[in-house]
Write a structure and sequence with these properties.
The structure is a single chain. This protein is mostly helical and 714 residues long. The chain has five domains: 36 residues; 166 residues, no CATH class; 139 residues, no CATH class; 89 residues; 109 residues, no CATH class. The chain is 75% helix and 3% strand. The protein has 27 helices and four strands. The strands form two sheets. A two-stranded antiparallel sheet has the order 1-4. Helix 4 runs parallel beside helix 6.
Length: 714
């Protein structure tokens, strides 16, 4: 679920996406793995979404072009819908939203398919707004599920809405349930509803009663529902006409003819009760001849086409067809519950999610640009005409040049080829004959020497094939066995080592990262020193070299070049020496850092000792002088000058006062100077600062020395 939430947040808030990625990565690490497979999952999801988008757009291409095509198709569909229905602008706004909603829900093949169905629904019914939307959607669903023509199902729905006061959804549910029960096996269900609903209503029956009669008659064996509807129609008409035969029929049933006619004329509950009373009395007649006579008097000749069981079934108004919206919902769940329909639904939702802002923001600009193009078309045409005229002029000149200069050459060449064709043909024939002879000789050699050997080898292989096959199988099985043993050894011994190594690396990653950062900082300082040497020593030499090249005296240039290259080699030797010292210092520092960084913070102190060997000669003996003072002496031997000079050895970090301040202090202290060492407490990030002043000191004062980290105090 975290991943699916993340896919949504990536498109909305990149900062939140970054945080989510970090959180998921942390959870995955705790569970024993990284998000190594996230890329593959993303590719898979991307592939599904691409397929879904393609399914949503149908035949239209995906991408920006697909959005333009979809926008154009929608507008064409809406224009056709308005033309077919004559709807107002306000009505079209509602129908446009309904059309988009139906499309997003996965119904219909295209915008045009939905618009055509909605036009029929608008023409066939009085439905508006949401009811019109559901009527259209249900008509498409019944078409896709049962093959019912949308115009037929909508006419049947409108009839029930008008005669029985049913809603559009109830009417469609009645049709769907009746079709499921087999009432449309002859394709006459909708025609029966449309033609005979008015007569069922006149008799006081509602839609549920009508479908109860039709269902029970169908169960009794009636395959043509028109017979049932036509018989019921005749009964209603004859009951109202007051004819002699109708009166006699009621008398034969033991019923008051006038009362029955009045009840049927009143309709509603009275008509319904009158119908049930009449049917009970008719079914109670035991004599089939008399029952048939009375039945024909009441129901007309169609009564004779109905079986006795069907007449009895027509008296039962109770059926299983209820017009429940749950039927439509169940059809929707079953019909559209597939991977293809899911892709189609996802694609349409994605497409409409992009299409809505595209239509609102981009299409107006595109339309404005199109109108601007129409307005500026004369200028565009003039420019195009001028451009094409210029192009044609250039083409004409090129053709003239080709015709006057190139064609004669080609013609002459062709003529020469024709003239010399026999010679050329002869040359080619000779070459072909030589190639043919070589191939023939090669083939004869192979046929005489190579092919017989090959045939013997092939014959031997065929004769020993069982042995060869068994040997190969044995070797192959042995290879598999050895490979399996190697894999088991690798899995049992090597992989755990890698896993422990990986766990160690991940556990110590912060320390390793800090060490690497320090090393890179050291390398950066080395590079800076090398660049300073190059910039301050080598570049001036190169500049002087360049100046002397243009001098007239070549011998002088040669002498200078020799001296310069001697100086360059000296500098290079010095740089190489510096780099060797630094590399050695880095190695020692890394070894010490790994040990030192694992100690508790309270014990992270170091003691630095230095040993130096004096190599310089001169008045000062190569020792540093500190007349100007320092707040942080690097440690070791230095010169002071009370009665001077006297050589003293100071610990690292000592403070040395300048000469003038020293004289002032001596004037008031009797000439006694107290020098105390300053303790040093360092953390891991100060090691580079310790090392590089040391390297700078060694090179700057032409001294050699070694830095020894003697251990940890405390």
């Amino acid at each position: 679920m975290e991943l699916f939430k993340l896919f949504g947040s990536i498109f909305i808030n990149s900062d939140e996406a970054d945080k989510s990625l970090a959180a998921i990565d942390k959870k995955a690490e705790g569970a024993g793995g990284k998000l190594d497979k996230l890329g593959g999952v993303a590719l898979a999801v991307g592939g599904v979404l691409t397929g879904a988008l393609a399914a949503g757009l149908g035949a239209a291409a995906t991408g920006i072009g697909g959005l333009f095509i979809a926008g154009n198709n929608l507008q064409k569909a809406l224009n056709g819908l308005q033309a077919q229905t004559g709807s107002t602008k306000e009505e079209m706004e509602s129908m446009e939203e309904s059309l988009k909603s139906i499309y997003t829900n996965g119904y219909g093949e295209s915008f045009q398919d939905i618009a055509d169905t909605m036009a029929i629904a608008k023409q066939s019914t009085t439905a508006l707004g949401e009811e019109l939307m559901y009527l259209t959607q249900d008509a498409l669903m019944l078409r896709d599920t049962f093959g019912l023509d949308v115009s037929e199902s909508l006419r049947g729905a409108e009839t029930m809405m008008e005669q029985f006061g049913a809603t559009g959804t109830e009417a469609m549910a009645y049709i769907a349930e009746a079709t499921q029960k087999g009432l449309n096996q002859n394709g006459d269900l909708v025609d029966t509803i449309e033609e005979y609903s008015v007569y069922f209503k006149t008799a006081g029956l509602d839609a549920k009663d009508m479908f109860g009669i039709l269902e029970n008659a169908s169960k009794a064996g009636v395959r043509n529902l028109d017979y049932v509807g036509d018989a019921f129609k005749e009964m209603v008409i004859r009951t109202k006409d007051g004819s002699k035969s109708t009166t006699e029929a009621y008398q034969a049933l033991g019923l008051n003819a006038k009362q029955m006619m009045d009840d049927f004329a009143a309709g509603g509950d009275r008509g319904k009760q009158a119908y049930q009373k009449m049917m009970e009395a008719l079914n109670a007649i035991e004599d089939p001849v008399k029952r048939n006579t009375v039945g024909v008097q009441l129901f007309g000749t169609k009564f004779e086409d109905l079986e006795a069981g069907a007449v009895e079934a027509m008296s039962n108004l109770t059926g299983t067809i209820t017009g429940s919206v749950d039927t439509l919902n169940e059809i929707n769940e079953i019909k559209y519950d597939s991977f293809g329909e899911a892709l189609k639904g996802i694609g349409r939702n994605v497409m409409m999610g992009i299409f809505e802002p595209f239509q609102q923001k981009v299409m107006p600009v595109v339309n404005e640009f199109a109108n601007w193009m129409v307005e500026k078309m004369p200028v565009v045409q003039e420019i195009a005409s001028t451009t094409f005229s210029a192009m044609l002029d250039v083409v004409g000149k090129v053709w003239t040049f080709f015709k006057e200069n190139i064609l004669p050459v080609l013609s002459e060449w062709f003529s020469n080829v024709q003239t010399n064709f026999p010679v050329i043909k002869g040359i080619f024939q000779e070459v072909f004959d030589v190639i043919r002879d070589v191939l023939k000789t090669t083939w004869d050699f192979m046929k005489e020497y190579f092919i017989p050997v090959w045939m013997e080898i092939f014959t031997w292989i065929q004769g020993h094939m069982p042995t060869i096959r068994a040997t190969v199988s044995t070797v192959f099985n042995r290879v598999i066995e050895v490979a399996s043993m190697v894999w088991n050894f690798f899995k049992s011994n090597i992989i755990p080592i890698f896993e422990r190594f990986y766990s160690f690396i991940m556990a110590n990653m912060p320390q390793i990262q800090r060490i690497i950062e320090n090393v890179f900082n050291i390398i950066a300082n080395v590079v800076r020193i090398a660049w300073d040497i190059f910039e301050n020593l080598l570049l001036p030499v190169l500049k002087a070299l360049w100046d002397y090249i243009v001098a007239p005296a070549f011998s002088k240039v040669q002498t200078i070049i020799e001296k310069v290259f001697g100086a360059i080699f000296t500098v290079v030797d010095e740089v190489v020496g510096v780099f060797d010292d630094v590399v050695s210092a880095i190695k020692d520092a890394i070894d010490w850092l790994t040990f030192w960084d694992n100690k508790k913070v309270s014990k992270k102190t170091i003691q630095v000792e230095e040993k130096r060997t004096v190599t310089n000669s001169g008045i000062t003996g190569g020792y540093p002088r500190n007349a100007t003072g320092t707040n942080y002496f690097d440690g070791g031997a230095t010169l002071v000058g009370e009665f001077g000079p006297e050589l003293v050895t100071l610990p690292r970090g000592s403070k040395i006062d300048p000469a003038n301040e020293t004289r002032n202090k001596l004037s008031g202290s009797g000439g006694v100077v107290k020098i105390e060492p300053t303790p040093i407490i360092l953390d891991g990030f100060e090691i580079a600062r310790i090392i590089f002043p040391h390297v700078d000191l060694l090179q700057g004062n032409s001294m050699t020395g070694e830095l020894r980290l003697s251990g940890v105090k405390g």
